[in-house]
Amino acid sequence: MKWKKEDIKQYVQAKEYIDTIVIPLIPFHLSQDNELEKGTFQSEVLSLFSNEIEKELTGRVMLLPTYHYLKSVNKEPEADRLNKWVEDVQKQPFTHIFFITFDSSWKKNEQALNGTLLWLPGVSSGDLHSKEMHGVIRNQVEQIVELIRSYW
Amino acid sequence: MSEKKQQVSRRQFLNYTLTGVGGFMAAGLLVSPLRMAIDPVLQKSTHGDLANVSLAVGDITTEPTRVDWKIDQVDGWYESQVSKSAWVFKDENDEIQAFSPVCKHLGCVVSWEGSEDFPNEFYCPCHDGRYYKDGTNVPGTPPLAPLDVFEREVRDGMLFLGEAKPKGEA
Predict the structure, then answer these.
(1) What CATH code is carried by the domain that includes residue B124?
(2) Domain count across chain A
(3) Residue B170 lies in a domain
(4) What is the H or E stretch that residue A53 is in?
(5) Is there a single domain that holds both residue B87 and residue B106?
(6) A17 to chain B: which residues are within 8 Å by CB?
(7) From the CA of A3, how many Å to the nearest CA of chain B?
(8) CA distance B129 to chain A (A)
(9) What angle do CA B108, B111, B116 make, to 5 degrees?
């Protein structure tokens, strides 16, 4: 399910079946010229990833809006803010919270997060619409789905 | 004959001109009804179009295989490419079956033999929904309806799939 009116309507009626939250964490910054391309590309890939995961597991997973943050900034206050999100989410019967990101700096702050961090080694360049890229993404999504299922 | 200039009488000349102009007008009148009569042939079909899924009929086995393909879809604001998938196989009557992989419970993606505990069945990973090979939901599992069936057609040995419809309608 996505953060959309139609999906939420369905969610309200089937709350007991949807117990998993996925929050994509995507860094943003415009200041460094040489990293712009890589940054935007990874952002696109991660959105694609989260959408594919959501598609596979629609009936049990809710994909929240992406959490954007400044890349250079200290992760501790960000983690605090994210935990506020989690607190709010847990007012509903959700039991599994997953954060999904390409940003390795979250790995060091994993303990601070109230949920499971899925850090994926990022794809830093390539053509999003090429056949090979589709294959790679399909394959990785399958593995992530497998991983999420192992928590259920 | 060549010496003598052919004479056109006034009567003949008027006859020719009137038939010519009259015929022209009649043709003009006929154009719209004709266009309307053949309209269904000229109609561009956008909805319910069958798409080539790049799968040769000879390659289809009795084991359900997942095929993925893309279609262009106009969706209110934007035109986009949508990826679709289906589980395709030949049933015991040698007929091609194509099931939608979308679980009828809450919409997860089911897979053939997705769980080792339930061989020979479609399995939904979200809430253990199960379907027999013919797409019928296993009683006692969450789904309440059989898997949707794709409109299918074979052209030149290739499989074409259309839209997924509830079982019994396609």
Answers:
(1) 2.102.10.10
(2) 1
(3) no
(4) helix A33-56
(5) yes
(6) 105-106, 126-127, 142
(7) 16
(8) 11
(9) 120
The angle that helices A33-56 and A131-151 make with each other, rounded to 10 degrees, is 60
Among A30, A37, A117, A108, smallest CA distance to A74 is for A108
Residues of B in contact with A18 (CB under 8 A): 106
Q: Is B31 part of any domain? A: yes
- Is A60 in contact with A19 (CB distance < 8 Å)? yes
pLDDT of residue A98: 93
Phi, psi of A16 (to 5 degrees): -65, -15
The larger pLDDT score, comparing residue B167 to residue A93, is at A93
Q: Which two three-digit tokens encode residue B145?
A: 């309806």
In this prediction the ipTM stands at: 0.72
What does DSSP assign to residue B50?
-
In a shared domain, residues B56 and B33:
no
Range of the domain at B80: 51-165
Mark yes or no for CB contact B125/A58 under 8 Å. no
Q: How far apart are CA B17 and CA A54, in angstroms?
A: 74
The confidence score (pLDDT) of residue A132 equals 82
Contacts of A25 by beta carbon, 8 Å cutoff, 6+ apart: A66, A67, A69, A82, A99, A100, A101, A103, A106
Residue B48, pLDDT above cutoff 70: no
User: Cα separation of A127 and A132, whole Å?
Assistant: 9
